[in-house]
Specification:
Blueprint: E1 4-7, E2 10-13, H1 14-30, E3 54-60, H2 65-68, H3 75-83, E4 85-87, H4 98-106, H5 125-131, E5 136-140, H6 167-170, H7 173-176, E6 179-181, H8 183-190, E7 197-201, H9 213-229, H10 231-234, E8 237-243, E9 260-264, E10 271-273, H11 279-289
Parallel strand pairs: 3-7, 3-8, 4-10, 5-6, 5-7
Antiparallel strand pairs: 1-2, 4-9, 8-9
Helix pairs in contact: 4-11
Length: 312
């Protein structure tokens, strides 16, 4: 029986999606383009990033760049993009969701099956952070409990929690304890106990997957504005807000063009980058910004993102 997955208002066969993605990748490789999953990524240009004490990554869902940037339904996010920095040529790696979340954590797409529930043993962001003596937490809105490694519990969905699939987390209760409900975020901010790396995921009602862009923008304003205003952030914080993938019809570079906004006191004001980036560059940025020198998977050869910051 063929497996089907919901996207937007329609349904797409996962088998068909895989076939289309493979065809697009083949065309890009034949044309010599920068292709998701390719081993021919350009080598990064050496540069030095500012050092940050705290990095925050917020992942939104399923809207293309042109739906988000300039949209009056998202005044808060567009305000951040105007005040700080915007990646104008940022592309997701694939459709559906899970390969993008995994690229952000392992530097590899790993699987195109949104229902994947196995174990991934590849190098990953947790392994490198722990090896470097850094702390991490993923704040998952509507997850049933701290340390939860089980399946969907709507509006929480496991495919948006790549940490639950990593062997480093599944086989270590101390690491699994770093998967917490999003309600813990405000407490940690107030108590000045935020980790070095925070991976923040709204539930499907608030990440623009099921809800509207206006709802997602309101959620961002309610939860990110206090963070940005905090002394913790102002004295060494970096916030990246991006979308996991574009509209299903957009297979450009694998997963379509999406919005990615970079916020920090070290960001170049009103900066707009024209460099092509994908999720492996964000993984590299997360680690490099925290002083980690080893990058999993494609992050090792991904274009670095130093141009977003003052002095570069």
């Amino acid at each position: 029986m063929q497996n089907w997955t919901r996207r937007g208002q329609g349904y797409l066969s996962i088998t068909l999606a895989v076939a289309i993605l493979a065809a697009v990748a083949a065309v890009q490789l034949a044309c010599g383009g920068y292709s998701a999953g390719s081993s021919s990524n350009p080598s990064p240009t050496p540069a030095t990033l500012p050092t940050f004490s705290h990095v925050f990554l917020v992942v939104e869902e399923n809207h293309s760049f042109t739906e988000v940037i300039g949209n009056s339904s998202m005044p808060y996010l567009n305000g951040l993009a105007s005040k700080y920095a915007l990646a104008k040529q940022y592309f997701a790696n694939a459709h559906p969701s899970i390969p993008n979340y995994l690229m952000l954590t392992t530097g590899q797409m790993e699987t195109l099956n949104d229902n994947f529930s196995g174990t991934i043993g590849d190098d990953n962001v947790v392994r490198e952070l722990v090896s470097a003596g850094k702390t991490w937490t993923t704040y998952q809105e509507s997850i049933p409990s701290a340390g939860y490694l089980g399946g969907d519990a709507p509006p929480y969905v496991r495919r948006h929690n790549p940490f639950s699939l990593l062997s480093d987390v599944q086989n270590n209760p101390a690491q699994a304890a770093n998967i917490v409900p999003f309600t813990q975020f405000a407490t940690d901010l107030a108590n000045n106990s935020l980790p070095n790396f925070s991976f923040i995921v709204p539930d499907v009602n608030n990440d623009a997957h099921d809800g509207t862009l206006a709802t997602a923008d309101s959620w961002l304003q309610s939860n990110m504005a206090p963070l940005i205003a905090s002394s913790t952030f102002q004295s060494g914080g970096l916030l990246v807000i991006l979308f996991d993938e574009g509209e299903l019809s957009d297979f450009n570079h694998g997963g379509g063009q999406v919005a990615a906004v970079i916020v920090s006191s070290n960001s170049k004001p009103n900066f707009q980058s024209q460099t092509l980036y994908q999720h492996q560059s964000t993984l590299r940025l997360v680690l490099e910004a925290l002083g980690v020198k080893k990058f999993p998977g494609q992050a090792a050869t991904a274009p670095e993102m130093a141009e977003f910051f003052k002095g570069h």
